[in-house]
């Protein structure tokens, strides 16, 4: 086996592996970012709902003790 064949036998699988890992990193990073965005939107919506409930209770208490 010549040096060139050895370089190809070792180098090509390494390059393919590095390319695959880079691609998978990009895909997973994108999915994590989308999940984070979705969770942030859900968190804001939940906080908004809690704020509305607290406002309604406070308004009820203010009306009750006037």
Polypeptide structure, described:
The chain has 66 residues and is an all-alpha fold. It is 94% helix and 0% strand. It is built from 1 helix and no strands. The longest helix is centred in the middle third of the chain and has 62 residues, at 3-64. The mean pLDDT is 96.
Gross morphology: rod-shaped
In this structure, how is the largest beta sheet organized? none
**Beta strands, count:** 0
Work out the radius of gyration. 28 Å
Q: Estimate the helix proportion, in percent.
A: over 70%
Q: Gap between N and C termini, in Å?
A: 95 Å
Q: What is the count of helical runs?
A: 1
Task: Encode the helix/strand succession as letters.
Answer: H
TL;DR of this structure?
This protein is an all-alpha fold and 66 residues long.
Question: How are the secondary structure elements laid out?
Answer:
Blueprint: H1 3-64
Keywords summarizing the entry:
rod-shaped; 66 residues; single chain; mainly alpha
């Amino acid at each position: 086996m010549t040096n060139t064949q050895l370089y190809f036998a070792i180098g090509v699988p390494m390059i393919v592996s590095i390319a695959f890992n880079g691609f998978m990193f990009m895909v997973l990073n994108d999915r994590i970012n989308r999940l984070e965005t979705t969770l942030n939107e859900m968190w804001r919506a939940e906080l908004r709902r809690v704020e509305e409930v607290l406002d309604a209770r406070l308004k009820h208490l203010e009306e009750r003790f006037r």
